[in-house]
Specification:
The chain has 346 residues and is an alpha/beta fold. The protein folds into 2 domains: 247 residues, 3-Layer(aba) Sandwich (QueA-like); 79 residues, QueA-like (Thrombin, subunit H), CATH 2.40.10.240. The protein contains 7 helices and 17 strands. A 9-stranded mixed sheet has the order 2-1-17-16-14-3-12-13-15, with helices on one face. Helix 6 packs across helix 7. It is globular and about 65 Å long. The two termini are 23 Å apart.
Length: 346
């Protein structure tokens, strides 16, 4: 199939709603792991902690260390005490954020709100054309610490259950705050598992890609090539570039943990023509027909039908292989999406 003729519907599969995981598995590394051979399409069923046996000495694992911003804040209007919820979308600097307000009619230009018993206050400074608000915060202390205290995680729309422990929606190695959603493939790792992987002779490298909520937007365009990807900010340090180059030289595999790490690796290769320190905005859209320039393998979760993420996975392993593996996953009751099970493609 020529990639320009590809239709969004070519990535449809039937997913019963009850297979979208609402809560995470405990402990983290006890979720299931399906392996998929990208050459043959063969699958096998394991547990995530078996990943140690599937990695080889000399491989290099690239992880996204972005941290989710607990960006949903509930406040009351200073004048009336009416309740309003804000979802912080983007930091514009000078304590000003672009945000979604619910209900919007309470957040007119000039109105003021109080959060967490006065720990945080804000004023709506502008209403943008698309209805988003610009809000400016006032506070004593460190903004992100206060947000950590009073903010809620903006879980993706497909997850309805309340999250008991905020840290469970962060990877154990997260530290660069800025994502609107967790890079979820990484949620399966525990500190002990990472230690075992290192002891086996696998190199760990970190990149940062701040995940936007646009990640979950289903593709509504009928033809893939008409879909407009959202842009996300990435950073690859020189130390990680060196690890990738060394792995390539010794014939080791470069394995991305998550589609976000994958998009960062491929964006750098595209932009720089090699691997070196790089940062910027990327709106890379990877779908079948794409030639991978850095990636050999991928650890990822099970994605929703017609999402850009199942398209990316299909670019690596082949659409038929992926859809067949997903059909098996549905039949075998694998858990899908952010809190679900994992797949290792190699």
């Amino acid at each position: 199939m020529h990639e320009h003729a590809m239709k969004t519907h070519d990535f449809y599969f039937d997913l019963p709603e009850e297979q979208i995981a609402q809560t995470p598995v405990e402990p983290r590394d006890h979720s299931r792991l399906m392996t998929l051979d990208k050459r043959t399409g063969e699958v096998a069923h394991k547990h995530f902690y078996d990943i140690v046996d599937l990695l080889e000495p000399g491989d290099c694992l690239i992880l996204n260390d972005s941290r989710v911003l607990p960006a949903r804040v509930y406040g009351v209007k200073e004048e009336t005490g009416a309740h309003v919820e804000f979802l912080l979308l983007e930091n514009k600097g000078n304590d000003t954020w672009e945000a979604l307000a619910k209900p919007g009619k309470r957040a007119k230009k000039g109105s003021r709100f109080v959060f967490g018993d006065g720990l945080l206050r804000c004023e709506v400074t502008d209403v943008l054309e698309d209805g988003n608000r610009l809000i400016r915060f006032e506070y004593e202390g460190v903004f992100f610490q206060l947000l950590d205290e009073i903010g809620q995680m903006p879980l993706p729309p497909y997850i309805k259950a309340k999250l008991e422990d905020k840290e469970r929606y962060q990877t154990v190695y997260s530290h660069e705050t800025g994502s609107a959603a967790a890079p979820t493939a990484g949620l399966h790792f525990t500190p002990e598992l990472l230690e075992k992987i290192k002891q086996k002779g696998v190199e760990l490298g970190f990149v940062t890609l701040h995940v936007g909520l646009g990640t979950f937007r289903p593709v509504s365009a009928e033809r893939l090539t008409d879909h407009k990807m959202h842009a996300e900010h990435y950073y690859m340090p020189q130390s990680t570039a060196d690890l990738i180059n060394a792995a390539k030289e010794r014939g080791g595999r470069v394995i991305a943990v998550g589609t976000t790490s994958c998009r960062t690796i491929e964006s750098v290769a595209q932009r720089e023509g090699c691997f070196r320190e790089s940062q910027g905005w990327t709106d890379i859209f990877i779908y079948p027909g794409y030639e991978f320039k850095g990636l050999d393998g991928l650890i990822t979760n099970f994605h929703l039908p017609e999402s850009t993420l199942i398209m990316l996975v299909s670019a690596l392993a082949g659409r038929e292989h992926v859809l067949k593996a997903y059909e098996t996953a549905v039949k075998e009751q694998y858990r899908f999406f952010s809190f679900g099970d994992a797949m290792f493609i190699s």
